[in-house]
Amino acid sequence: MSNTKLLTVISFLFLISCNSHDKNTLVLKDANIINVYNGEVSANSVVIEDGIIKEIGAFKNLNSAKSSQVIDCSGKYLLPGFFDMHTHILEHKNSTKFLDSLLSVGITSIRDMGGHADSLARVKSEINKGIINGPDIFFAGYTLDGDKQRDTPDPTTLIINDSTDLSEVVSKLKQYKVDFIKVHSYFPYNRLEELIGIASQQDLYVVGHIPRNTDPNEAIQKGMRSIEHLNSIIEGLVTKESNGVENITQAFNTIDSTYLDSLSRSFVGYGSAFTPTLHIIDKIYSSNPDENLRRLGGLMMDRFMPMVLALHKNNVLILAGSDDVPVDNSNYAALHKELEWLVKAGLTNLESIQTATINPSKFLDIESEYGSVDIHKKANLIILNSNPLDKIENTTDISNIVVKGQLLK
Q1: What pTM, to 2 d.p., does this model score?
Q2: What residues does the Amidohydrolase-related domain cover (predicted)?
Q3: What is the pLDDT of residue 18?
Q4: In CATH, what is the architecture of 82-363?
């Protein structure tokens, strides 16, 4: 090959390389970056390459920014993408077609708390391969529950009784590459510790509802990694026969500061987290046609919110979860409603944001990749028009979303 032809080939390959680099490089210029650890806001630019945050600093000092796609973010605010830590994306047959809509409201990662394991595994794989758009998925697959009266069988649930081979069940779920195991209220309480031990042997952990006849402290101390729903705590108190708590009123009377301190010590000491799901509890009761149930729901919310604040002040890791199903535009933003409820409960705007960003990344042990706007982390980001530290509702004032380094809009 002549030197001229060789130079031509080298030049062509160089141009391809440059064009490819430009295509995969994005710069968010002069954004107000919110530090979710401490609430500090700094005006800086962010360089993103191949879906990863590579540089943060003054635009004029960023060498790699000179030949990149640049988005002017002056006056805008930058947050890490949100986690919804309690949702069910495949509970409705049409849910999958709305997954990209979750991205549009800043939900870039989800913890699916029960569904068809095979379908969830397939959807997660297709998202990871770029075949379909959707948030990063961490999932349980089939929920484990006990025998109870059902109008129709639940195809997303595996029924467990005293004779069920739990090793076989866990191995089956492991084949779907689940991230954890979810139990529901009727899971046999006398087998909870056994399940947790078997799951641990397969590098899995157990989360979910507190099984009936199990005190909340007991469930945490046996090794449940997260407890879901405020009402699950009430149910645990009422159904544990030795507690002598017979109804909701007695349960709320039992949950005084001494009890909440004890519960907090269990959560913190055993490394368990709590997902209150205030929004869905309010939604269920406030929309009920029965006036008495609506009144009961209001009374429950009045008691639940101080519980959340007390646990939070005692350093319990709080996770934001909507427990909603993405089937239409009325509930895409359910997670944002949960953040608003957490602020109503007494968390600051920053603390509420933490429940959907850095707290989930800590819980899932992926803090090195997710949860904040930092170098080496995944570029799943929310660009806001207004400051959410001033008003939590500003988390919905979205200018654009970055998903795996690409602008959504």
Answers
A1: 0.92
A2: 77-407
A3: 42
A4: Alpha-Beta Barrel (3.20)
